[in-house]
Structures are given as structure tokens and as C-alpha cells.
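User: We ran a pulldown and think these components assemble together. Before we commit to crystallization trials, I'd like a predicted model of the whole complex to look at. Sequences follow.
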Amino acid sequence: MSSLMEQSPLGVYQAHLAKGELAYQVSLDDNKPFFYPRATVPGTGSTNIEWRVSKGLGTVYTTTVVHYKGEPPLNVAMIDLDEGFRMMSRVEDIDAMQVKIGMRVKFRVNPGDAKQPPFPVFTPAEGKS
Amino acid sequence: MSAALEGLKRGAVAIVGADESDLGQVAPGTHPMDLMAQATMRALADAGLTLKDVDGLFVAASQVRMGPMAFAEYMGIKPKYFDGTIIGGSSFMTHVAHAHAALQLGLCNVAVITYGSTQRSVSRAAASPREYNPYEAPYRAFIPPSAYAMAAARHMHQYGTTREQLAHVAVAARQWALMNPKAWEKEPLTVDEVINARMVSYPFTVRDCCLVLDGGGAIVMTRADRARTLKKKPVYVLGVGESLSHANISSMADFTVSAAVESGKQAYAMAKMKPSDMQMLSLYDAFTITPLMFLEDLGFCKKGEGGPFVASGAIAPGGKLPVNTSGGGLSYCHPGMYGLLVMIEAIRQVRGECGQRQVKGCNVALAQGNGGVFSSECTVIFGSETAL
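Assistant: Here's a predicted model for the assembly, 517 residues in total across the polymer chains.
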């Protein structure tokens, strides 16, 4: 990681999303991926970090459906990306209750809006975990 | 195990006073520190001590960010030793561990641990505003319920745990609450009513989730020699354990195993006891999944068997292992950070003060605190003179 005077972990992550990419970090000391983006490697504090772009394929680790009053049911899920990191996200293009643990999913960028920068969501993909 | 905890001596300190503030919905304008003050003076009276005796102060509250400083001013005291560690609902179990160290080292002589919240009056959103997390905010998870719901969903997937089994946790809590005059809920509850209640975050209905109430409490601690000279029979601290595993639920390594495994191991080691020595459990029940997982993680049943265990009636009145005899956060009171009240019930059981719901011959009780989203787990084992 370079100086925090030049770029932040969040800034790099969001710049990738603006290009349609899901980026994550890898500790080059032991080749382990980690997420969320950080200035140092969890567990060691090392700054020997490389940004990589995920292939965007993953598996639903767990899922819930949130019921806010006056809104349609909303999916929230934990996605285990094939590269070996986990993130909170949402599976779209499918009924919220039909999102199942073990389901294969594929990354897509939700463009966000004036207040919310682009963010990653997932859609059902072919195959099984 | 941390070096600090290794230095703690089993039974060196005791709880000598414990009480709640008013609970439920308090008068408009009540400040969380009004509840802390009320609870502190009740707990001191319970001990036969006065405010002048207090020289150690431990405070954590979401509505009072600099707790020890603000509450020392409110009470007009200048404590020699203070600690404002805030790690959610388990903060107070951690305060017991830290007060144990401070008392044992002579850094203070009488420690008060206190908490207050007006979350029902001012709304949960106002009482516990969430920190902004740019990686997770877009998904609008309802935290904390959605986080625990995802743990429950994973537990159901891996072990076949059912919504009916989870509901049994709420039903048992309600059965106990009906024997506690201070409990908020006054009517019986069935498994069907839990499952068919308003859905909050699948698989949780509103009845799988704790109450949202105003309330507070305080406990008073001294060294064992002084404790024996005071009004009530001392309740000794036999063991403590504390463990941090993550802050955000996405960083929980295995959603079906909590850090209570570690905090429990520490507490059992210090107490020189095992799960079968515990006669009553006070397990933080913010959601039905929490006590179910703690029963597994603290060694009362095998991993994955928490569902059948609770559905057997084991934790309900008349069952083989009394759990949350106050009615718990699900039916008695949950004022946001519930750990202090979790301990007060365990202390009262060891004292034999629980009336109709008293566990006969209860000399050892375990209190499990839980903070954040299965994030901070702290265990305290209390015992009577007999258990020393």
C-alpha cells in the first residue's frame, strides 16, 4: 500500500467499481486474500499488499430477508468469493426468499445513485458449489 | 489466555451489591445517567455501603460516550480507578474482570459497575446510532437482527436446526418471565405464536428478537475479606474470560461458532470447574439463536445439538438446566446493552433471592455476555461461600 496521502483503501476499491471491477487485496507475504480493504494486512501489519480483480464468482455462505415496514422484502447475504474472501452483499434478480445457502452467484455492479457510489451485488449463476 | 487474566485469583473478589434501576418505559426526559444513579444507590444500599465508599467506577453506555467521566461528575465523586471499556452488551462482564484485577492489586477498594439506557423512550436508532461502514451500508441489513439471523440461517443449514426449535428459546424465557414480577411480558407465549409473529429478518420474527426497553443496573464489588463483613452473603467471582473475535458479522470466521468457546474455556480454567458444575445459566439472549449457540459453545451440548436440546424443555422451568430464569432479554428486560442484567439474575440465584423462580440449592451460576454481532464474548462464573 502506498502512502495514505495519495490514495485510501476505500478510494482504490471504489475506483475499481467505477470500472465495473470487484477488487480485493492479497497479502504477498503469504498469498492470503482479505476483505474489507485495509492499509495493513490483518494479523501481521505488513504493507506488502497487492490489489487484484476478482473473477466475480462465488457461493452464498448465508442469507437473510429483511422486512422493513412498507417495503418489499430485501435480501442480504454473505458471499464467499472463489478467490477466498467473504463479503456482505445482496443477490438480485431473484425472489429474496429463494436465495439459498450454497447457491452459485456472479458479481454485477449496482450503479448506485447521487448519494451512493457504485457497489457490488450478485445474481444467480450456473452450477453448484 | 491473556497474562492479565492468568493473574486473577479465584474467589479473591465478590459481588456485594446488585440491583436494577426502574425498568420498562420511564418518564419523559429521564436521562440514562438518572437510571445509573438510581441503580447505583440501590446496589450500594443492597451492600450496606454508601457513595463515599466508592473509589472504582466502571461505566459503558451507548448514550453516554465518555461514561466514567460523565457519571463521576453526575455523582459528584472522584474515583481513584475507572474504566469505560465499551464492547457492546458484554462490556460489564469485562468490567467485572477488570475490576477484579484492580481490586486484587489494590488500585481501588469498592468498585461500582453501572449502565443505563432510555432506548425505548428515545428510539433504538437514537440510542445506538450505527457507525457508517462504506462496504456494508448499501445492503441495508437490519443490524443487529440481520446479523444474528444470518448466523441462525447457517446453523439451520449445517445442523438442521428448525424455526420451531429456535422458538422454544423464546417460549422457555416467557415461562420463566411469568414468575418474575419485574418482567415486562406478562402473558404466556406459544411456539406457533413465535413463528407466526411479524417477520423481522428471516428466520426471525419479532418474537425471536429481544425487547427494546429503558433500564439500567449496577453491581458493587470488593475484595473477599471485606465482602464477608457486609450486609449480604458475598457472591464470589470464581472465573472470568473474555474474547474478541470480530466487529462486523462478515468477519466472523464460522457463523455457527462464537468466541464464547474461548471465553468459557478461560472462565472454567480459572474457576477450576466444568460445565456440569454450573447449576444455573444466564445467557445473553438478544435473539433466540444466541443462547442456543452458547449452550453448545460453553459445553452444555454438542455443536449442532442446541436445537433438540432447547426443544426438549431442558432450559424451561422444570427442565434439567435452568437458563435465563429472569425471563431474559426476550421477556424480562433488554435495555440495549443487557449484560449487567444478565449478571444480576445469576447473582440473585446464587444468593437465593429469586422467590418462585429460585433454582434450589444454587451455589454456582454462569453469566455469558455477548456484544456486537457475536463479536465480544465474556463469561463470568459466580459462586457462593459453599462453592469456594
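The interface with chain A takes residues 134-136, 138-142, 146, 149-151, 153-154, 157, 198-203, 248-251, 255 of chain B (CB under 8 Å). That may be worth checking against your pulldown data before setting up trials.

User: Thanks, that helps.
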